[in-house]
Input
Amino acid sequence: MRRNKFYSLLLSFVIAFALWMFVVSNVSLEDSRTFYNIPVVLEGESVLADRNLMITKASVNTVSLRLRGSRSDLNKIGSSGMTVKADVSKVTEPGERIALAFTPVYPGDVSSGSVAVEERKPASVLIDVDYKRTKELPVQIKWTGTRAENYLYDAENAVLDNTVVTISGPAAVVDTIEYAAIEVDLTGRVESISESYRYTLCDSEGNPVDAQDITTNVEQIRVDMPIRRIRELQLAVNVNYGGGANEGNTTIQVEPQVIRVSASDAVLETLGDTFTLATIQLAELEKTSNELVFPITLPEGVTNQTGVNEATVTVSFTGLMTKTFKVDTFVPINVPEGLDAEIINTALEVRLRGPANIISTFDPALLAVEVDFASAEAGTSTYKARVVIPEEYTQLGALGSYTVTAVLQAVRP
Output
């Protein structure tokens, strides 16, 4: 029985001693402790912004504090962490190394009055403040690299989705920046460019500026620049021979003969090597020498790099003679059933061209005028007429076009 009482007393003593040691170690006794890497929080920056000011540099981001207080409070600070705050709202003008006092912010269950600051490292936070400047910069493209032969790089017509960049930041930095530079390497590029590029902020001499404190309205700029292949294109005309003109007695010259054009490879492949300006009806040309001017109207997607927008086609005839004959023989054809055609013209003057030795002795009695009444209706109208030349006179041809007047009426029973 006494032994049990002894053990009970001993256990009570041990428990009491442990409680006393806990209180002495963690609650009632004061102590000092150093806390490191405490984050610095700057307050009042919105007030600076209203004054068109901004912080460009802070001497430290963290501080160290030696605190005195109860071990219980110090333990809470150690486990929950703390910050210090520095108020910048009292800064009213730019300056360097402006000293700011800072105040500890303890966890919510630790009273600021129960803890004393014995030492601060550093003693204050130093900041640099400058005016905030906003500026619009032109965008310039720097083309680099080796360009492929026979390709046109239309750099002058490059299109940017942003031709200016708006920057904001410390006035001391912004004032040194003159433009935003994009570098585009053209080495091996034979297809049109349509890409986005990052840019570099540069001073007036083209040197990059440290822009870590600068904010911009865009991060990248899109560049669209046509790249086209250049090729020579032969100019030509289609010729319908007639009126006594044939390959042997006709000379055709086109000036310019060749132009240089640019287009995509696919478009040039479709275009071919020759571009036809027009079709010429030689039977409609009566002069010995004729100059015809045609616009050089290229297909969509093809650009004329020569700068000449018209071509002159000279058509000359050699050894040919033109003579007017009166024809009084008319041959109606394709008269609609049930109608009768009466040609009012009694004669028609026609012009023939051919070798002088043949046309000078040609008998006009051999000529006839053929009038086609296909799809004609009753009434008086004009109709196209064709001069019929005997087959043995293939070297002769009629010039121009002709019409006659005729009356169509129902056949009388």
